[in-house]
């Protein structure tokens, strides 16, 4: 199973925070992986297909929780050896389906998605999660850092880019043979995106592999480290970065004292460094620096509560 499929399987089990976030996630998922069907009297339906069983179940669940119109569900089996099955959700054109698609800003075309709440950061995260489930991919952490969202809808791609930039992600957009690609090529950006959409396990795996890989590029500093100590350093660095990114995403980062912000910026600038190395860089004692990171961790735990 590819790393991208692992991410999709994980986020397919994320529960939207509320009905508004469910609408946002479903709208992005259908916009990315669905196609509109025109019927008589100007009525419109939609057909969504995916090869990921968990994503198909998530799409069906969100639809059933939101609307009275019931979709048809079919499975198209792969024709050749190792070909994946495709799971198809189809809502035939009708007066009711047209009204439903209007509620999701999918018809008529609305580049601002004004019918759903995209001012709420939680709904913005849900929107990005739906887009990734519908048509996202990310490289294995051992390879080159690359995450992308591919769509044939230019205004939708621009909306994704706008939201990603609101979260300070280093995203860019380009066209590819008539399609539009929103992508991230930096390790920090890929890592932040995974955490943003709720892929915590994938985030931890990505960060663990990435930090070890970067450490191996500095062999002179780690050659005498025992494996257990190296992993301990990696785990501590991941936890600290995760706490800092949680505070940044929630807006609580600005409430940190200057001393805590100094420690946070030092960790983000040196993701692979040990506590001893950070202490040397900061001029603080190792215990003093550890005390600051404990305070940062305590604030991050308040978000979870």
Automatic annotation (TrEMBL):
Residues 20-106 form the Sporulation transcription regulator WhiA N-terminal domain. GO terms for molecular function: DNA binding. GO terms for biological process: cell division; regulation of sporulation. The keyword Ribosomal protein does not apply. InterPro entries: Homing_endonucl (IPR027434), Sporu_reg_WhiA_N_dom (IPR018478), Sporulation_regulator_WhiA (IPR003802), Sporulation_regulator_WhiA_C (IPR023054), WhiA_LAGLIDADG_dom (IPR039518). Keywords: Cell cycle, Cell division, DNA-binding. Residues 124-216 form the WhiA LAGLIDADG-like domain. Residues 219-300 form the Sporulation regulator WhiA C-terminal domain. Belongs to the WhiA family. This is Probable cell division protein WhiA. It comes from Megasphaera stantonii. The lineage of its organism: Bacteria, Bacillati, Bacillota, Negativicutes, Veillonellales.
């Amino acid at each position: 199973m590819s790393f991208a499929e692992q991410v999709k399987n994980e986020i397919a089990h994320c529960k939207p925070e509320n009905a508004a976030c469910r609408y946002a996630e479903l709208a992005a998922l259908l916009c990315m992986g669905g196609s509109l069907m025109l019927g008589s009297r100007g009525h419109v339906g939609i057909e969504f297909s995916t090869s990921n069983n968990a994503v198909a179940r998530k799409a069906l669940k969100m639809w059933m929780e939101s609307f009275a119109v019931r979709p048809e569900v079919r499975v198209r089996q792969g024709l050749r050896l190792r070909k994946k099955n495709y799971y198809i959700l189809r809502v035939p054109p009708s007066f009711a389906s047209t009204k439903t698609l209007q509620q999701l800003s999918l018809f008529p075309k609305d580049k601002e998605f004004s019918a759903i709440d995209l001012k709420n950061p939680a709904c913005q995260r849900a929107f990005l999660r739906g887009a990734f489930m519908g048509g996202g991919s990310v490289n294995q952490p051992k390879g080159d850092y690359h995450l992308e969202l591919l769509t044939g809808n230019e205004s939708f791609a621009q909306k994704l880019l706008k939201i990603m930039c609101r979260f300070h992600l280093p995203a860019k957009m380009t066209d590819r043979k008539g399609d539009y690609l929103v992508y991230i090529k930096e390790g920090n950006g890929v890592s932040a995106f995974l955490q943003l959409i709720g892929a915590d396990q994938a985030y931890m795996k990505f960060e663990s592999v990435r930090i070890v890989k970067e450490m191996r590029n500095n062999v002179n500093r780690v050659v005498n480290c025992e494996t257990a100590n190296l992993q301990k350093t990696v785990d501590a660095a991941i936890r600290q970065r995760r706490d800092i990114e949680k505070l940044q995403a929630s807006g609580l980062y600005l409430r940190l004292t200057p001393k805590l912000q100094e420690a946070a910026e030092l960790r983000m600038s040196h993701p692979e460094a040990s506590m001893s190395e950070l202490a040397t860089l900061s001029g603080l004692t190792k215990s003093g620096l550890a005390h600051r990171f404990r305070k940062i961790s305590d604030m991050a735990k308040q978000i979870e509560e």
